[in-house]
């Protein structure tokens, strides 16, 4: 329940405080979200499999977000930003799908 | 493909496995109890929710700004259009008023009436008022199938100039192209592949209407410079042209404002 409460608090905080992202960081926001999703689903799967670790989760969360944003930034500088975004999304998307599928199997046994 | 295989086989961060193995080796449970209540996981989800909301709000705001900007521009265009048509109405009302006042003034005496007729003839010649009469319409159109890369199978401004000159030379008294009266101030020129007459963009087909004796105009135009030019261009590049006699043509008044030049010799 606590993780779900955290998600709700985060969403509410976003609406209440109405934080606006600086213009230069806007292109990296969607990629950062996908990276964060990957880390969160990985964490949930680890919890279910009984091997969750706070430190690993925090480090993977922050590192995922920063590296994904950095790759896109680098791509923008090299003129291949959209291609590298696609690459990041494909890799993280595959991981998210596989992790969510495992979580689903653990929960529903199907 | 081993990278992709890796991705499918081990989607979970290997760090979890390693940390659990270390704890097992140290004789502890692989993970602390009650991992669902881990503050790190909760914080991560708070961050995720925050990021999501920020991104969604951002996209919404941008979209609404763009659409409201477009709405503003559309409104502006409509307003300016309305203003232009209002002003044009004003202009024609004022012109009608001027004409009426002139005839009222000149009607009173024979000399005045003579002068009024003279003024109207001059206005008709210069294109300041609309004229009606019999004449011919020369229709010029682009080639039916446009294949030439360099656009030589399209009507050029030069072709229209030749047609207009040819019509003048065989006795046309007033000429208009697609409803634009040709006056002494008219320019027939092309800008970026679009022919402009009186600085208004025109598109094919071009109808060059000329008032004059329909029989002699139609007969002589073929031998004039314009007719020869058209024949040559048509045979070379497939441009279509046609000459029709008309019982009655009405050519509109041209736009001939003089701002610098003052009528008369001055003193």
TrEMBL record, chain A:
Keywords: Cell membrane, Membrane, Transmembrane, Transmembrane helix
Membrane-spanning parts: 28-48, 55-74, 80-98
Stored InterPro entries: DUF1290 (IPR009709)
One GO CC term, this protein: plasma membrane
Principal subcellular localization: membrane
Compartment(s) where it occurs, according to its Swiss-Prot or TrEMBL record: Cell membrane
Superkingdom of source: Bacteria
Record's bilayer topology term: Multi-pass membrane protein
Family: Belongs to the sbp family.
Protein name: DUF1290 domain-containing protein
Biological source species: Jiangella anatolica
